[in-house]
Design goal:
By secondary structure, the protein is mostly beta strands. It has five domains: 36 residues; 90 residues, RNA Polymerase Alpha Subunit, Chain A, domain 2 (Beta Complex), CATH 2.170.120; 91 residues, YbbR-like domain (RNA Polymerase Alpha Subunit, Chain A, domain 2, Beta Complex), CATH 2.170.120; 88 residues, YbbR-like domain (RNA Polymerase Alpha Subunit, Chain A, domain 2, Beta Complex); 94 residues, Beta Complex (RNA Polymerase Alpha Subunit, Chain A, domain 2). Helices cover 15% and strands 48% of the residues. The protein has a 16-stranded mixed sheet that branches. It has a four-stranded antiparallel sheet with strand order 14-27-24-21. It is rod-shaped and about 180 Å long. The mean pLDDT is 91.
């Protein structure tokens, strides 16, 4: 026994042993306090977010909606429980939500806040009101086309060749008394002096039938913005023209008038710089010799040119030529008249003369013009470099006096005798 007593006496005098023993005793006391005595305590958690889960609730299914501009609500909660339970507890473990079960019709309600702590050993107390006051109204929806409204004007000469708005339609949901007033959905873009394609986004505005703006505070739009795409092209209106020709000779432009249908103008589309040089658009030639009466209508199909597009409603143009009071008269060219004709391009070492005794030519002109002309009024020539007809006759070139307007009604040929020059 004396040995055992000595051992313990020696042990309790050892400072290291006493330190270890102190720690063991302290841990034991702490474990007792925590696990046995464990007094209750409280913690306060502020700004706990309240889940606003509305879809599928009683008022939602009854086509009601709350008048709220935000679904962010918060609550302060005091949680009570044992020290050990609260030791590792945090605000994230608190689940708060609104209970909409009592809302069945439009009106103002105090909606209760429901709390779940996730630990049955804990209790809670809501600090402040345990309800949130909300107004519920009947909801409705409408689908509208999104219209493009522009401010300003495109650069002069430019017009729209294609235009789209995306999205083309939107759905608006909100209080029925507000939705029922909505007639238009519009997006506005400034196009002042635009001469390039446009792709701009803007806010979608809602308007009533009398074009008053609708307050969007409680409205939900399927899209709040729209993108407008506009393709622009320079267009110009130019006069239609035709070339009046008479292959037999003469000039009838003084009394031949041309009218065009459906319009005397064509709409051209293309590069602005290129079109700036174009004032008239020639659709083709008209052979006046084809007109045997006083008027005739010709039909043309206009074609696009390189860099220029015809954008008129119709690409078929009719041109009606009116010769007014033009008349036809025959003139007898005598042998003397023909001998006085100038002969051009006579081969070297040769002589040439017209051998026809006479030639009758037909001329169309105004009556007063025809009265002033006779057989000696015409200038006559033959070009031996031209191609003769199957009879070997050469074309007779007939010229009218300067300032005299008329047209020959046929092509005339004469016999030319070509001989060697006498030595």
């Amino acid at each position: 026994m004396s040995k055992i007593a000595g051992f313990f006496e020696k042990l309790f005098r050892n400072s290291l042993f006493l330190k270890i023993l102190s720690v063991i005793i302290a841990v034991g006391i702490w474990l007792y306090i925590v696990n046995v005595a464990d007094p209750r305590r409280t913690e306060e958690y502020t700004n706990v977010p309240i889940a606003f889960i509305y879809e599928g609730t009683v008022p939602y299914n009854n086509s009601l909606m709350p008048l709220v501009t935000s679904r962010s609500f918060f609550v302060n909660v005091r949680v009570s429980g044992s020290r050990s339970s609260l030791m590792n507890y945090s605000k994230d473990k608190i689940s708060a939500s609104l209970n909409f079960n009592s809302v069945a019709a439009a009106g103002i309600y105090d909606v209760p806040i429901s709390i779940s702590l996730g630990d049955d050993s804990l209790t809670y107390e809501i600090l402040g009101s345990n309800t949130i006051t909300l107004e519920f109204v009947k909801k409705s929806s409408i689908t509208l086309n999104v219209d493009f409204q522009r401010t300003g004007s495109y650069k002069t000469g430019y017009s729209v060749i294609d235009q789209t708005v995306s999205p083309e339609t939107i759905t608006v949901e909100g209080p029925k008394n507000i939705v029922d007033t909505i007639s238009y959905a519009e997006v506005t873009v400034d196009v002042t002096n635009a001469d390039k394609n446009i792709a701009e986004s803007g806010d979608i505005l809602l308007l009533t039938a009398d074009r008053s703006y609708v307050d969007r505070t409680y409205l939900t739009l399927s899209s709040s913005q729209a993108t407008v795409s506009v393709a622009l092209q320079y267009k110009k209106s130019v006069k239609i023209a035709t070339t009046l020709v008479n292959p037999f000779g003469g000039n009838e432009s003084a009394y031949a008038s041309v009218s065009y249908s459906p319009s005397p103008y064509l709409q051209l589309q293309g590069d602005e710089e290129m079109l700036s040089f174009i004032d008239t658009y020639n659709i083709g030639s008209i052979n006046l010799a084809d007109i045997t009466g006083s008027r005739k209508t010709f039909e043309f199909t206009v074609q696009n040119q390189s860099g220029i597009e015809i954008v008129s409603d119709s690409k078929t143009i009719t041109a009606t030529v009116d010769l007014g009071n033009a008349m036809i008269k025959n003139f007898h060219l005598s042998s003397a008249n023909l001998k006085n004709a100038e002969i051009l391009n006579i081969p070297e070492g040769k002589t040439a003369r017209i051998t026809d005794l006479y030639k009758v030519i037909t001329l169309r002109a105004q009556e007063y013009t025809l009265a002033e002309l006779d057989s000696d009024s015409f200038s006559l020539s033959v070009d031996l470099s031209s191609i003769p007809n199957e009879k070997g006759e050469y074309p007779l070139i007939i010229g009218l006096p300067s300032g005299v307007y008329g047209g020959l009604m046929n092509r005339y040929y004469v016999n030319v005798l070509i001989e060697d020059v006498e030595q």
